[in-house]
Amino acid sequence: MSLRHAVLGLLSEAPASGYDLLKIFEMSLANVWPATQSQLYGELGKLTDAGLIEVAAEGPRGRKEYRVTEAGLAELRHWIAEVPPNTVPRSDVLLRVFFLGALPADQAVAYLRSLARDAENDLAHLRSLVPHVECQDDNLSVYGRLALEWGLRASELRREWAEWAEEQIRSLNVTPRD
Amino acid sequence: MSLRHAVLGLLSEAPASGYDLLKIFEMSLANVWPATQSQLYGELGKLTDAGLIEVAAEGPRGRKEYRVTEAGLAELRHWIAEVPPNTVPRSDVLLRVFFLGALPADQAVAYLRSLARDAENDLAHLRSLVPHVECQDDNLSVYGRLALEWGLRASELRREWAEWAEEQIRSLNVTPRD
DNA sequence: GCTCGACATGTCTCCACTGGAATGTCGAAG
DNA sequence: CTTCGACATTCCAGTGGAGACATGTCGAGC
């Protein structure tokens, strides 16, 4: 249900075509709310029908540039401020952790170690994005920086937690059961 | 696709009926992988068809107690160790952060503040769970503790980040643009 | 003048998840 | 002995996302 609001949000910053949006999704929202072209174009159609966006201009190759309407902006604001964020995010990573007991201890440790490595990689990747957003000053960048900071902190947390967890399992396993 | 592995994982600890599983989901997996009864019973049927679990015993009220088969256990281990964790978790909270620019600054600040409050509540809730899992010693509890620790750390992170973000917005807004 | 790659929009099917509802059984308390 | 609440299962309609596929246009460079 949030894809529509992601689209509204992006269009509220600047008019764009479906193709443009696709690019923006790949770049800046890839880590927050990935979307495919089918979803995007479908949503653009529905939003137009609902009167929340409208075609601002047509260009070459059938390009349609969309922009939010007043109603769309109102809906966006309403969603941000008043709709309760929904639900527990599901984590298949954490789910695996729950069942690590089904694996021999050395494999469990290896799994946790690989989580730490993944987190480290993500961290490196996010850090590489920092210079990109640092200099810009549009709304999306300002708030994008907040989101990026979240990502940085979360990746660090994942790494530290994985290292801690690995240590836990190790110590459980080494100590005799007396 | 992970619901089936959650079911396999739980059944690998102990045989259980659909109803039992539902309870377990509500208690220990509620924050990791919530599931409804329709999903659960559906999945139990599919898993049985696939030969990954089997009916171990039938009880009163049509109760069917399931247990994993060898094939099921193998599938579980394979999933944990070898299937790459999938994808970016979507966060509608973070998505809202991206578009906070659509709101007047004071509302943006209020939103961040409410995030901090939510995180605080979650933290309190998770802390209340700590004594529950602390004493037990089965596999699920051991690894459940790891998951719980993750939750604690993540909630703290959310609170701290929200407070930091609020400060960022405030300072941006107060400083003159010269 | 042709071709290739980027631009651009759409359709279709499958699967997971949601939420609701219907149905029936057993045990305990009054 | 009756009734109520916990136990227990099954079905269904609707929605949203994933991913594959189909189609067409323009511009640059050879």
From TrEMBL, chains A, B:
Residues 7-77 form the Transcription regulator PadR N-terminal domain. Residues 90-169 form the Transcription regulator PadR C-terminal domain. InterPro entries: Tscrpt_reg_PadR_C (IPR018309), Tscrpt_reg_PadR_N (IPR005149), WH-like_DNA-bd_sf (IPR036388), WH_DNA-bd_sf (IPR036390). This is PadR family transcriptional regulator. It comes from Bailinhaonella thermotolerans.
